[in-house]
Amino acid sequence: MQTAGKSLKEALNCAQSEDRLTVGVYESAKIMTDDPDSVSFCVLATDEEFECDIALQIHFTLIQSFCFDNDISIVRVSDMDRLAEIVGDKSGQLEDAHCVLITNPADGAWEDPALEKLHRFCEESRSLNDWVPEITLPGR
């Protein structure tokens, strides 16, 4: 679904500009443990290189379970390099873009139309028993 990919990119860019992005499996797990109510959206990314990484698959299973238990929308992307490009620093270098969280703003007053579209997309997917829908990120 092309529009979901575009919405995801917009939501990530917006969250990054407002310093509401957490990147990395361990960093994400820490936020989920310390302040689960602050998490609004979760993106899991993998690629062929990491599909056989058992530790990463276990982390993904735990993160997915946490998201389901706490009613956090979650999607999967298959192009980790593209995700790292979007959420990384200017050089695009990022050690661990396997998990990216978008957190709520501290003041609570905020509207992000792209994120709202993503939440609706996830709700529709869940109604079709697709609990972790895959989204394709748009190209450069």
Provide tags for this entry.
single chain; 140 residues; alpha/beta; 16% strand
Could you walk me through the main structural features you see in this protein, from its secondary elements to its overall organization?
With 140 residues, this protein is α/β, with parallel strands linked by helices. It is built from five helices and five strands. It has helices at 2-17, 25-34, 54-69, 80-87, 113-127; strands spanning 21-23, 39-45, 73-77, 99-103, 134-135. Strands 1-4-2-3-5 form a five-stranded mixed beta sheet, sandwiched between helices. Strand 2 (39-45), helix 3 (54-69) and strand 3 form a beta-alpha-beta unit. Helix 1 crosses helix 5 (113-127). The longest helix is centred in the N-terminal third of the chain and has 16 residues, at 2-17. The radius of gyration is 14 Å and the shape is globular. The mean pLDDT is 87.
Describe the secondary structure blueprint for this structure.
Elements lengths: L1 H16 L3 E3 L1 H10 L4 E7 L8 H16 L3 E5 L2 H8 L11 E5 L9 H15 L6 E2 L5
Parallel strand pairs: 2-3, 3-5
Antiparallel strand pairs: 1-4, 2-4
Helix pairs in contact: 1-5
Look at the structure and give the mean pLDDT: 87
Number of strands: 5
Beta-strand fraction estimate: 15-25%
Number of helices: 5
State the distance separating the first and last CA atoms: 17 Å
| Order of the strands making up the biggest sheet | 1-4-2-3-5
Helix content: 40-55%
Derived from helix and strand composition plus strand pairing, the structural class reads alpha/beta
**Which stretches are poorly predicted, pLDDT < 50 over at least 5 residues?**
none
Largest sheet: 5 strands, mixed
